[in-house]
Amino acid sequence: MKQSLTAADVVAGHDLTGKVALVTGGHSGIGLETTKALAQAGATVVVGARSLDKAEASLKNVKNVEIAAIDLESPRSVEQFARKVAAAHPQLHLLINNAGVMRPPQFTRDQRGYEWQFGVNHLGHFQLTGLLWPALKSANGARVVALSSIGHRYAPVNFDDINFDRHPYDKATAYGQSKTANALFAVELDRLGAPHGVRAFSAHPGGVLTDLIRYMSDEELATWGIKRVGDRLETAPGAFKTPAEGAATSLWCALSPELNGHGGAYCEDCHLAPLVPDDPAILYGVREYPIDPANAKKLWALSEQITGVRYA
């Protein structure tokens, strides 16, 4: 399903003056379009970036933006970033956990010792959100958006073998596990946050060609209808969304009044996603396991144990 709404369309009519938003990876791809739309609507946008040079170059003409370094695979980096943000902004109204990695060719661990995609995509954001929990509660109405993906269809969270100690490593399965974790995170965060005015959602941005595919081989790209020609990627017209279109759903989750009362939901194409059977051939909707409350609680307890972060 492809929709034509863009980031600018979604924020149109919203005055975010006086609001503070944080976007991880907000300097490239979908994240850049998210940052620009929020800033143009008047919000102060904090961008967490692994490369300050790249972030400063891409955001040099965008007003209302603050940039700080964060490496989501490093607990120390996440803590330093969170302390800096909390000191500058005691209230945080929007947190969009946008940054991520996909399909590295070899098994790699983050600095916590966990599989890299699970560590960066889920554990780093779990730690960050927990450290910013007081600022989110102080906003008297905050939203957190976790960028998930239709890639969740590749795998649930394997609580018995997250690190592939007993099964051969498969990069697509590992990516699917991390994206399922993003959706489960939103489910339990919303349950805990609702009494404090903090609501959480997960979003599938749609198929968008960004730097996220940098680890994919030409053969893998070809199965998706993508051809690499020098530094360019060629696809059939209309096969993929633009980054501005990809940013629309996460912004819709952050701002739309239509989601009042629907906390914890998984969204796509600026709508609540339908529940679909667990069939990898179905390229839309959400399976049952990424929105299962029992799975969400189990993942939450494990994440607290791994990161040492507990949401007071």
Describe it.
The chain is of the alpha/beta class. It is 38% helix and 14% strand. The chain has helices at 7-11, 29-40, 52-58, 75-88, 116-131, 133-138, 171-193, 218-223, 243-255, 293-307; strands at 20-24, 44-49, 65-69, 94-97, 142-147, 198-204, 227-229, 232-234, 266-268, 271-272. The strands form two sheets. An eight-stranded mixed β-sheet has the order 3-2-1-4-5-6-9-10, sandwiched between helices. Helix 4 packs parallel to helix 5 (116-131). The longest helix is centred in the middle third of the chain and has 23 residues, at 171-193. The chain is globular, with a radius of gyration of 18 Å. It starts with 6 loop residues before the first helix and ends in a 5-residue tail after the last helix.
Total number of β-strand segments? 10
What's the number of structural domains? Answer: 1
Helix content: 25-40%
Provide the gyration radius in Å: 18 Å
Euclidean distance between termini CA atoms: 39 Å
CATH topology descriptor: Rossmann fold
General form: globular
How many helices? Answer: 10
Query: Helix- and strand-based class?
Result: alpha/beta
- How much is the average pLDDT? 95
Q: Regarding CATH, which class?
A: Alpha Beta
Order of helices and strands: HEHEHEHEHHEHEHEEHEEH
Low-confidence spans: none
Strand content: 5-15%
**Largest sheet strand order:** 3-2-1-4-5-6-9-10
> What's the story with the biggest beta sheet?
8 strands, mixed
